[in-house]
Amino acid sequence: MPPYNAKALTGAILVAALSLVGCVFRERGFADRCADVLREAWPSRIEVTSQQTNFDFANDLTHATASAAGTVKGLASGPREVAIECAFHENILTGFRWTAGQGDTVRSK
Questions:
Q1: CB neighbour class for 41 (10 Å; exposed up to 12, middle 13-18, buried from 19)
Q2: What value does the CA radius of gyration of the chain take, rounded to a whole number of Å?
Q3: 3-state DSSP call for residue 98?
Q4: Is the dihedral of CA 53, 54, 58, 62 positive or negative?
Q5: Using an 8 Å Cβ cutoff, are 55 and 29 in contact?
Q6: What is the number of helices (H) and of strands (E) in the chain?
Q7: Which residues of the chain have pLDDT under 50?
Q8: Which terminal Cβ of the chain has fewer Cβ within 10 Å, N or C?
């Protein structure tokens, strides 16, 4: 068995662990990404009021849903409250659906 320098090995493990921790903290959550989809529906006109991520750990670890709700500013008429639900599979957005104030019925001034 080749001799190992304990300090060098400990240092290498510490650097690797800190690198992994840095990757985790830089990643955006599902709720943030779902809120981004809602904001992109009406650029500069959505104020996101709530967002939430839902996991079903009992059945599947690779699927998650997230929801985001907000208020559309500057509407002549129609629903001002809008909400969507986003589906994720293995960290990839696979779909979304309107749950309030459907996008095609909201008309701007």
A1: middle
A2: 21
A3: strand
A4: negative
A5: no
A6: 2, 6
A7: 1, 21-26, 104-109
A8: N
Query: Which residue is it, tokens 């509407």?
Result: 75
DSSP string, 35-65: HHHHHHHSTTTEEEEEEEEEE-TTT-SSEEE
Q: Spell out the long-range contacts of 93-101 with Cβ–Cβ below 8 A and sequence spacing 24 or more.
A: 93/33, 93/37, 96/34, 96/37, 99/67, 100/69, 101/72
Q: Please name the residue that has the structure tokens 């960290």.
A: 91
The torsion of the CA quartet 88, 91, 94, 97, rounded to 10 degrees, works out to: 40
d(CA 8, CA 104): 60
pTM for this structure?
0.64
Contacts with 97 (C-beta within 8 Å, 6 or more apart), sequence order: 84, 85
